[in-house]
Design brief:
three-stranded antiparallel sheet, 3 helices, 6 strands, globular
Length: 130
């Protein structure tokens, strides 16, 4: 379950941009929706307007899920926690719990087979509720 290497999907990257994610990363989605990666020495903030090909903002930073989760907690005050259901000693699917830290409101996602899918779903759900 190493989510720190899992890159956010294009949909998640679009939601992050909408919510002003502007952290430097090595990967981005270009205008065609293709994931591109640059070297460590070229880390930049791809959501900066100077990287746009046109005014429609079609270039999106593609952070790791761990970076997006940390950014949500530190900058936007949403905690996304992934848990696994269990029934009488057997484990089931993963789900994400989203906690809005300013007032303690809690929501959760549906059930997913993988930790990464549950985390990404929780991130998108938090971004949509802002």
């Amino acid at each position: 379950m190493n989510c720190e290497l899992k890159i956010a999907s294009r949909e998640t990257a679009r939601w992050l941009r909408k919510r002003r994610f502007n952290e430097p990363v090595t990967s981005y989605y270009d205008v065609d929706g293709t994931l591109k990666t640059v070297g460590e020495d070229e880390v930049t903030s791809w959501n900066n307007p100077s990287h746009d090909k046109d005014a429609r903002h079609q270039v999106y930073a593609a952070p790791t899920l761990a970076l997006a989760q940390t950014w949500l907690r530190e900058k936007k005050r949403f905690d996304v926690l992934v848990d696994r259901e269990s029934f009488f000693g057997t484990v089931g699917k993963y789900y994400a719990k989203i906690i809005r830290l300013k007032d303690g409101a809690v929501t959760q996602t549906g059930k997913y087979r993988t930790f990464e899918k549950a985390l990404e779903s929780g991130i998108v759900k938090a971004l949509r509720t802002m």
